[in-house]
Design a protein that fits this description.
Blueprint lengths: L2 E4 L10 E5 L6 H12 L3 E7 L8 E2 L6 E2 L2 E6 L4 E6 L8 H15 L2 E9 L9 E6 L2 H8 L8 E4 H12 L4 E8 L6 H16 L6 H5 L1 H18 L5 E4 L5
Parallel strand pairs: 2-7, 2-8, 8-11
Antiparallel strand pairs: 1-3, 3-6, 4-5, 6-7, 9-11, 10-12
Organism: Natronocalculus amylovorans
InterPro entries: Proteasome_assmbl_chaperone_2, PSMG2_sf
Protein name: PAC2 family protein
Amino acid sequence: MARFDIIEKSISLSEPVLVEGLPGIGLVGKIVADHLVNTFEMKHYANVYCEGIPQTVTYQPGQTSVVTPVRLYADADRDLLVLQSDVPITPQAAITFANCISGWLTETNVLPIYLSGLPAQKQSEPPTMHGIGIGDGVSQLESAGIDTPAEMGLVSGPTGALLAHALEHHLDAIGLIVESDPQFPDPEAARRVLVDGVGPLASVEIPTGELVDRAEEIRSAREQLAQRMQQADEESTKAHPLRMYQ
């Protein structure tokens, strides 16, 4: 049964922005989510139970308790939520998962920012990023000065399903699409999203010095997950261009 088990009931949020951190191309969402949670020392707000999430648990260093592999973290001062995931969501489970997440977002008046990597064999410096929006998300992107797409494209996987659900049900939502390494974790793409995407949209200053300093360590730590996702062909989310006559 789909439910969000709220752990920190004392946390009060007004109209929070939620940053989605599902593992996908370049593990951009995963790196962004982990960085926000660690940098702001965000509190574990809720365990997430949705059909489509692998029946596993996560354990962490120095703790004997376990948590769900998909969780919500909150920062009341910044009115910020982060959806952190330790596992990929398969394409087959995308719609079920999206319905579960979107149902809760609707009930709690949250503006979601969905993240997707765009595979690029040779990235720009810095990586190119553009935004797409639904409802009030369009004006939010314009206010933040985020570029519009230069070509037609498609977002697939669970993130695509989340955006599709918002479109169908007339919900406000934002999607950020960034050029990413198609094979390995990409901290530089994540940095672009944090500095020029999430920061302006959520009205928060996000230090990224540690992300740059630890780029090689992050690549190494995330490479195993990236390889496992490639072998199973289970990217959590992916954007790709739709060119004429392809």
